[in-house]
Amino acid sequence: MAASVLADDGIAAAGGPLLGDAEFQFLRDFVYRHCGIALSEQKRQLVQGRLLRRLRALRLGDFAGYCELLRRDPDAELGELASAISTNVTAFFREAHHYELLENELLPQWLEHKRRSGDRLRIWSAGCATGEEPYAMAMVLAEALERAGKTVDAKILATDLSPQALGVARKGVYALDRLGGVSEERRRRWFLRGEGEYEGYARVHPRLRELVTVLPLNLLHDWPMQGPFDAIFCRNVVIYFDQPTKQRLFRRYAQMLPPGGYLFLGHSESMHGLSDDFELVGRTTYRKRA
């Protein structure tokens, strides 16, 4: 993934308004209801420090005013709130065994089947963060399409809740030191090195941008897409959800996958005891039962 994870960065709230008991309880309920994340009392200082930036940006004098804004129009501020209290952790080709399975086994099989049937191929990066995950998928997919020499309607959907993360994903511009997981051959093939004011940066190749559609989506709200997807990547996202939220999400993923479709989780995540719809077929790799 692509992950949105809570991490205490030690930001102090010195000189700013304090987050009172009532406001913190409201925020805890709001974040759980809309984001599926349970904020413990230990996260109070983190929430206070992170949200002070939003108070300043919105020119609000206290947290009561911010809570009132959320009550009036939850959707308008939800993405900013999620961005403020989370840290997007991702990298190109993170958990490489998933990409190796795609490249060596799944994509060749799928492309041959799609060519014969005329069906489309769809992969979903659910929680794409700043886009490294879906663009890594796009490299593997583009290369597989070339090797197969077949014309198949193939696309990758990349979704996230954070407006800031989605902005980076849409631009597809990354500092060169972010390309550590990309081989030298793929760097030459799939990135355009920046010059002038963009020195030290690289943009993903237009071919990759053609394959990836970046959209905002809250995993806990309604999903506008119908599916089906051949594979869903939801890595390092559900680790911060409680058990009932995970179970609901896995049921919804199962509805979006055909029998034999794949669901990829993060290295610290497991579906054990949470779903009967999937079977474990590899490291954090699950296949929907027939």
Describe the structure.
By secondary structure, the protein is an alpha/beta fold. The chain has two domains: 4-88, Orthogonal Bundle (Chemotaxis Receptor Methyltransferase Cher, domain 1), CATH 1.10.155; 96-288, Vaccinia Virus protein VP39 (Rossmann fold, 3-Layer(aba) Sandwich). Helix content is 44%, strand content 17%. The chain is built from ten helices and twelve strands. It has helices at residues 21-35, 44-58, 63-72, 74-85, 96-117, 132-148, 163-171, 184-190, 206-211, 243-256; strands at residues 4-5, 87-88, 121-126, 154-160, 173-175, 191-193, 201-204, 212-216, 231-234, 262-265, 278-282, 285-288. The strands form three sheets. It has a seven-stranded mixed beta sheet with strand order 8-4-3-9-10-12-11. Helix 2 crosses helix 4 (74-85). The longest helix is centred in the middle third of the chain and has 22 residues, at 96-117. The radius of gyration is 20 Å and the shape is globular.
Summary tags:
single chain, 290 residues, alpha/beta, Chemotaxis Receptor Methyltransferase Cher, domain 1, Rossmann fold, 2 domains, seven-stranded mixed β-sheet, three-stranded antiparallel β-sheet, 10 helices, 44% helix, globular, methyltransferase, Bact_Chemotaxis_MeTrfase
